[in-house]
Amino acid sequence: MAKQLGLPGTEGAPRRAGGNTTGHGGKRPGAGRKRARPGRARGTHRARPFHDRRLPVHVVLRVTPEVGRLRRHKAYAAVRLAMVALVLADALLEKTGGDSLAEVKRNLAATLAAQHAY
Questions:
Q1: Is 37 left (phi over 0), alpha (psi -120 to 50) or beta?
Q2: Which domain holds residue 69?
Q3: Residues 6+ positions from 40 with CB-CB distance below 8 Å
Q4: In a domain, 47, yes or no
Q5: pTM attached to this predicted model
Q6: Domain for residue 83, yes or no?
Q7: pLDDT digit of tens for each residue in the chain (118 aa)?
Q8: In-domain check, residue 2
């Protein structure tokens, strides 16, 4: 192992903080995480609420350069409107059911008629 050379008139390696002459870390005064006040917790450790992994919370949209920036207000509004339409369509299909568009229309008409009669 090579020995570190010092300047003439000094003994070996320069002195390091905390008296550590090897230069490989170690205990230093004031280093590390500060201690909490006794008897007082830093924060609560609550469990996260249940989340169904099939339902996304964060969605990443990748687009081609021709589309441009989605951070523009018009682009953001268009994407948001499309996502709201998908959610509403899903809720409508869940409410009315049906395997074809004609069946969905028939079920929707019956649902609306029942609501008007109520």
A1: beta
A2: 55-118
A3: none
A4: no
A5: 0.42
A6: yes
A7: 566 666 666 555 555 555 556 666 667 787 777 777 766 666 677 888 888 888 878 878 788 888 888 888 888 898 899 999 999 988 888 888 888 889 988 988 998 899 888 8
A8: no
